[in-house]
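Lay summary

Proteins are chains of building blocks that fold into shapes. Our project writes down both the chain and a compact code for its shape. Here are two examples, one after the other.
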Amino acid sequence: MEGVRWAFRCGAWSPSRSEWLLAARCVQQEEKQRIGQFVFTKDAKAAMAGRLLMRKLVCEKVCLPWDTFRLDRTARGKPYLAEPSPVPDSVHWSFNVSHQGDYAVLAAEPGRQVGVDVMKTSRPGSSSVQEFFQIMTRQFTELEWRTIRSAGSDWDQLHMFYRHWALKESFIKAIGSGLGFNLQRVQFHISPNQVQEGHVYCQTRMHLDEEEDSWTFEECLLDKHHHVAVALGRPEGSASNDAGNSSEAPPPTFTLLSFSDLVSGAKPLSDEDPAYWESFQSKQDAPVRQSETQ
């Protein structure tokens, strides 16, 4: 059974009144309220897309009608299917979402831990690239910094920085450790140095506490600015040296979904709330970066 990779370009989504109110009706009440508290529409759209992606996944792959289940989060924020309880001996789907830049993404796997992170390469708002790196020194090992700084131009170094960041975040999200995890414990040996759109790469290896680990990492570009990393634990029931085996099927590529795709099969969980649209319209789209005001 193949895993799922979905992407939604929320940065290009300008929801109509009917779309936004339908989306709000198709997520749980507490999530609707949380999304409504975002100051900027950019963040609200990304969060809404993430919730719809997860419900679509459960609906299609776990085969539960849209309005018959409840999603929840662990104490450290990892989403899971809370109700109904899994049927014994049924396939357990692990899923994770990420949203940053212009995209919301979902990765899901049957019988395997999974974490995903998307990062957009962008210049620091108020400092030079090298000043930004100095601030972030403790997030990477000496080897990782050598890899980042040897990438070429400042832009190439930034791209390599965010590639490393997405890898680390995907692993942390897969194991559900949250902010307390020491990023120095994981070190990535990047391969290849250059990635191209339209390809999925699985050669990068991770060392955990200085020992090579058997996790698999998929890397790809959604476009020239957005890098995605998917962390995959060992399949349930496999030996420790099975992960990343060359005999595995080719990794799935990300499918770009439309809003219609997101809500196909959706059933409203609540009544329409016109005030929710009015609140959304009153928000600013995104914060103004300092670099844009200079």
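And here is the second example, written the same way.
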Amino acid sequence: MGTPESSREPCPDRILDDIGGAFGMGAVGGSAFHFLKGAYNSPTGSRFLGGSQALRMNAPRVGGSFAVWGGLFSAFDCAMVYARQKEDPWNSIIAGAAAGGFLQMRQGLGASARSALFGGVILALIEGAGIVMNKALAGQENMGVIIEDPNPGVGLPTALPGQTGTEVGTSSESGWFGGWFGGAKKKVEVRSGGAKTEILESFDAPPVPSFEFK
């Protein structure tokens, strides 16, 4: 099972992929949120119309904001990959902090620092949860492996204690009924450590009578 870093797109394509995914997530979530908010704040009888208007006005804006954050995050992530020459959770944590601080630069140094700290903590929690889930899933897969015996039956006793072996004997029994039709019955006796099993086999079936007129 690959880690979240190794299962992502390569770095030049990762930026566009994250921008599109962030925009879609923001647009869908913003649509649901602002539709419900607009319907709640609208008067009775025009709730659907108010929710639809709020959706059209705010959903693209929320999607664009998410896309900007996703693009900056991926750009900083790729920069960390090229700088450190390896993929690990620290790249995502540093990229999240850098993206959060960069977006709040216009609000001043204090706001930028607080936003960077918040973004780094959020990304650290996300990466930690991903690592824990991957380890749990890997543990379940290892526990589900069943080891089969390549030589089943090896070492098992072939007879019960006290049994010396298996003896097979045959005998034929023919009475007046069997001799009348020219046949007999063959009896096969199997002895295994005192236990006897009889198997009767019949042969030479009697001829089928003919009723033709001569």
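What can we say about the second shape? Helices lie at 11-41, 47-84, 89-103, 109-143, 176-180.
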